[in-house]
Amino acid sequence: MKLSSFLYFAGFGVKTVLFRRKKPILGTVILTDKCNLKCKHCSVNNITAVVHPYSQIKREMQTLYDMGVRILFFCGGETFLWRDGDITLRDLVVEAKEMGFLIVNTVTNGTYPIDLPEADLILLSLDGDRERHNAIRGNCYDTIIENIKNATADNICLYMAINQINKDTVKDVCFTARDTKNIRAVSFNFHTPYPDTRELALSKEEKADCCRVISQMMKEGAPVFNLKSAFKHLINNSFPTPCHQCVVIENGKISTCGRCIEVEGLCNECGYFFVAEYTLLFRGNVKIIFEMLRTYLKYI
């Protein structure tokens, strides 16, 4: 991370904590909900299958920038399916950097060739070992691993949603992150139980077991891009929601925190690690502050 970016984020954090501001710093643009996979835990794919045009995406990027957002994510659906004529995802990442966003990331399922060295991080979904991942996402594990090895940069961060199907494979994903070329780290979430996927949710005891495994992997040197100090809050769902410092824009509509905010009661069952980490950070949790500084400087 550049020193100028670090100082900007530090200043934002201090002002947010001291003055209890709700101004956003992290924003997500949904490029499309079109996806080539039909994952068992996903409730937001192929609802419209519309690929939003470049002119709209550019306006939405500008809207988020004008709101104060400086960490930008491109999400789907599958982001590598997005294009408008000759304009591709890569062009969007480059333009976002030129616009002034300090960190630009994208999320992908990894089934398409990964040629995006301009992104700070590529969050790539890997949901367990080969057997469990394929049970959730279809027969694509080997393709994903091959695409990771052939990627044009080492900016990949694995992204695992832990659920009833893959809860026993946390170690496997940590080992993959540690031992595979081009992977920088791994980031975890617990499954957030949308009404049509409630059977995949973990109990409090199962969350605690997973956090113990993740903690042990961190001790053993696995590159985990999460904050251990937030684990107890995630296990107990005791962190404040929603996260006002994060926003999502989809087809012109802005949502605080995420697209799930309008599902009644779902915030109380949130499994997103970053939500816990950010809300605790901006409430001034000292352990979270120092751990985030160390983690972000290491992996971004």
Can you tell me about this structure?
The chain has 300 residues and is α/β, with parallel strands linked by helices. The chain has one domain: Aldolase class I (TIM Barrel, Alpha-Beta Barrel), CATH 3.20.20. It is 38% helix and 16% strand. It has 10 helices and 10 strands. The protein has an 8-stranded mixed β-sheet with strand order 8-7-6-5-2-1-9-10, with helices on both faces. Strands 3-4 form a two-stranded antiparallel sheet.
The strands making up the biggest β-sheet line up spatially as 8-7-6-5-2-1-9-10
N to C succession of SSEs: HEHEEEHEEHHEHEHHEEHH
Largest sheet: 8 strands, mixed
Q: Number of domains in the coordinates?
A: 1
Give the helix level as a range of percent.
Answer: 25-40%
Which helices and strands, and how do they pair?
Elements: H1 3-19, E1 26-30, H2 54-67, E2 71-75, E3 83-84, E4 87-88, H3 89-99, E5 103-108, E6 121-125, H4 130-137, H5 141-149, E7 156-162, H6 170-179, E8 183-190, H7 204-219, H8 231-236, E9 246-250, E10 253-256, H9 273-281, H10 286-299
